[in-house]
Amino acid sequence: MERTDHTTEHTPRADRADRELPWTSLPPTLTPLLVPHLPAVTEELLDAVRVDVPVYARPLEGLFGDSIRRGVEVALTRFLQLPGTHQPALMGDDRRVYEGLGRGEVREGRPMDALFAAYRSGARTTLRSLSRVAMDAGFEASVLIGLAESVFAYIEELSAASAEGYALEQSERAGERDRLLDALADMIVRGHVAEDAVRTAAAAAGWPVPDRVVVVTVAADRRVGLRSRLGERTLLTSRPGDVVAVVPEPSSATGRRELARALTGRGAVIGPGRPWYAAPDSLRLAVLTRDLLQREGPADPGPLWVSEHLMELVLHSERSVVEDLAAQCLAPLEDLRPGQRERLSATLLCWLEHHGQRAAMAAELNIHEQTVGYRVNQLREVFGDALNDPKSRFELELVLRAGFR
């Protein structure tokens, strides 16, 4: 091939835009010289990518192959339009091609590393091929340096466009997944939904259905950061006045501690463990416990576990029934003075709890053992044979634990 002298006077420009667009210094005569070589460079580049990047080492067929080949062809065609211009690397539809490649990596389940590696491989191949043509045509070294700067600056723009597409796809998918998770939470908490429908919704949201769950109620004003604290396997939904979380039931003491730590300071009540399809029952008991056992506590209290307050729940849930039972069981105390009735009630509960062991009773009541004996004798006079009857003792302890005196 006959060499032609294409020497150019290269004067560095102070203009900032020119420094950021190195192809402005390239001679426009490069374009018609390089265009005929575009098909060969395309194939050389694709072959190099398949060798350099293992995840792309497969036949370029179907949608995957079409996307990659189109990306290469658009990239090279656009690049050859830039020498001697002040145009940006990508515009309009061209930029969307590379955003699309980034989105495709998300759909393939890959990080951006592979695509960035493919861009670097493509840049090396393109520079090697185009530099060879330019050298054979007699361009001077300054042009080759400008060509190298232009290729790598161009690749940076492609990478940036793909990274943006990748981030947009992730964001859109996260938003869609959040919507699916919220809908799934509502289905499970509401109940009366076919199992197939729940499992289909769970699969669409990418939520592994646990065998058992606990349902948690949290004060509505303490929702911020709750999902991140409880983890990806948590479902959240809102109701008037509170937030409901569906959490896989902790399978160990460590898991319980971690859940309690995540909920500390949020006014949380943790329902009992249930199969996932019985989540509404766990929620019902959590709400009942919250409403019945609201307590004054420290500024940063831990959560209330329903499983640790089942007796109180039984006693409070049918209060009128327990009141009737208390009236029957404690009737023998009615004729006593209030102070005497209070002392004997406390002694009776202590006697029942400690199975009549005087030393333990004296320590708890902070009285002498002889005083314990005196009070027990009073109780036997008041209640008679009822204290010898197991059923009566159980009923007495139940109503006294419920707070009746």
Task: Summarize the structure in words.
The chain is α+β, with helices and mostly antiparallel strands and 405 residues long. The chain has helices at 16-20, 30-34, 38-52, 62-79, 92-107, 113-136, 141-190, 195-205, 226-230, 253-263, 279-292, 310-317, 319-329, 338-353, 358-365, 369-383, 390-401, and strands at 212-219, 235-239, 242-248, 269-270, 274-275, 304-305. The relative contact order is 0.06. Helix 3 (38-52) packs across helix 4 (62-79) and helix 14 (338-353) crosses helix 17. It starts with 15 loop residues before the first helix and ends with a helix.
Task: Briefly say what this structure is.
With 405 residues, this protein is α+β, with helices and mostly antiparallel strands. The chain has helices spanning 16-20, 30-34, 38-52, 62-79, 92-107, 113-136, 141-190, 195-205, 226-230, 253-263, 279-292, 310-317, 319-329, 338-353, 358-365, 369-383, 390-401; strands at residues 212-219, 235-239, 242-248, 269-270, 274-275, 304-305. Helix 3 (38-52) packs across helix 4 (62-79), helix 3 packs antiparallel against helix 6 (113-136) and helix 14 crosses helix 17 (390-401).
